[in-house]
Amino acid sequence: MDAWALLLRYLKTRRAAWVACLCIMLAVAAMIVVTSVMDGFRARIQGQIRGTEPDLAIRWPTPFPRDHEARIREELAAEMVAQGGPIIALAPRLESVALVLAGNSRVPSEGTTFSTLGVRLLGVDWKSEKTILPWEGLVGDVQDPALAAPLPIADEVLFGSIPGIIIGRALADSLGIQRVEGAGFGVADQANLLTGRVVQNAGRDREFEPSNLLFRVVAVFDSGRDDFDLSHAFVSREAFRRLRYGEDRSRPDASVVHARVREELTHSLDEVVAGLKQRHPELLIETWAERNRGLVDALRIEKTTMTVILGFIVFLSVALVLGLLVMMVLEKTRDIGIARSLGMSRTRVLWAFAGYGAILGFVGAVLGAILGVALVGDLNSIVRFIGDHLGIEIFSRDVAYKSREIPAVLDYQQVGFIAAFSFFLAASASALVAIRAACVDPVFALQKD
Fold first, then answer.
1. Which of 56, 169, 217, 247 has the fewest CB atoms within 10 Å, i.e. the most exposed one?
2. What span, in angstroms and rounded, lies between the C-alpha atoms of 102 and 118?
3. HEC string of the chain?
């Protein structure tokens, strides 16, 4: 009896085996959909991070010299694009923490009240900063007319008689700040910033020296990250120095210098940093991913965890194929004995049973890949259809979601790996059972009832 004839006979008569094939298909499709959605969320979050973080953050070892920015610019002069290096632009920043006090104009009947929040205050050089971050997009994305500001942000707005401050939308909402509707650019509620420093006076213990300065909110930005928008505020470096250091002549000109690299190098920042550190070992250089290591690692671990969990579903589907093959070998022991007595070799018996399971695994993996790709391609339409016809509210109307679309990034290399891995598991399980079938003694098999 030919091995292919035996294989086809079992495929036609063992319809229950196609249930296992269906399970493999659904498991593969589920893995593709979930991993694509996880990749979509990761891409969205990383895109939001990249919108608020520079490619590189560069520091001199502390304590910072007064000419911190000047030293770094001099050190990196040969690394600029004009000299054939990887760096397009540099922008200095001064960083500190501060307490924001804002008069709450939304409750005038209750008298004068104040909202307070702690923020990370950043003093920037506006012209340089615009070469590092997409500020036009950040400010332009604010849709609330009570908070939005026309573009472009002019230097005189930030550096007027009352210095300007740019805050995040979440911070503006929390503080009760609301721009005067219909007013010209630069007219907004005012905010008082409190900060301070520890000073060592001669013959006295170290003391905390508070300082404060009045700012006017000239613009509100929306990065898509409430955690960032709630905790960051931007002012000019001149205003920052006046607030933080007063007339202290020893104040540094920057706490950190941010760098932007050539677009084609943004996907290989680790290699860029390795080269810079080798040429400038005295500098402390971090990539955007290193500065956000906790969030990046959390996204990676979450995807890995979901992949492992869904991998177990594939293992269960393959186990079903394995169980069906074991039962088939036990039931067809006499058929195996007859085939062997008619001249079928052990090898052909092995290929017959191995091919049986491999075909089920292959069909399940291929159909699962096709189904998974189709679901990812039209995922939001499917979700809306389910929500409309089953009365399931996927996105609650009471929650102000940043987006009411489920992000998904389809990686065909990943799809191929999932399908190939599922097929490999099914083929391996089939091979184990096939070896057992090939080792059946034909004399024993014919004697069996």
1. 247
2. 12
3. CCHHHHHHHHHHHCCCHHHHHHHHHHHHHHHHHHHHHHHHHHHHHHHHHHCCCCCEEEECCCCCCCCHHHHHHHHCHHHEHHHCCCEEEEEEEEEEEEEEEEECCCCHHHCCCEEEEEEEEEEECHHHHCCCCCHHHHHHCCCCCCCCCCCCCCHHHHCCCCCEEEEEHHHHHHHCCCCCCCCCCCCCCEEEEEEEEEEECCCCCEEEEEEEEEEEEEEEECCCCHHHHHHEEEEEHHHHHHHHCCCCCCCCCCCEEEEEECHHHHHHHHHHHHHHHHHCCCCEEEEHHHHCHHHHHHHHHHHHHHHHHHHHHHHHHHHHHHHHHHHHHHHCHHHHHHHHHCCCCHHHHHHHHHHHHHHHHHHHHHHHHHHHHHHHHCHHHHHHHHHHHHCCCCCCCCCCCCCCCCCCCCCHHHHHHHHHHHHHHHHHHHHHHHHHHHCCCHHHHHHCC
Nearest to 339 by CA among 350, 323, 328, 325: 350
CB 251 within 8 A of CB 241: yes
Measured at the CA of 125, the angle between CA 122 and CA 255, to 5 degrees, comes to 50
% of the chain beyond a pLDDT of 90: 12
Task: Compute the distance between CA of residue 445 and CA of residue 312 in angstroms, rounded to an integer.
Answer: 36
Picking from 38, 16, 84, 5, the residue whose alpha carbon sits closest to that of residue 379 is: 38
Q: How many CB atoms lie within 10 A of CB 63?
A: 8
How big is the chain, counted in residues?
A: 449
- Beta-carbon-side half-sphere exposure of residue 232 (alpha carbons within 13 Å): 19
User: Taking the CB of residue 290, how many other CB atoms lie within 10 A of it?
Assistant: 14
List, for residues 267-316, the tens digit of each pLDDT value: 888 899 999 999 999 899 999 888 888 888 888 888 788 878 877 877 77
Which tens digit of pLDDT belongs to each residue from 433-449? 777 666 665 555 555 55
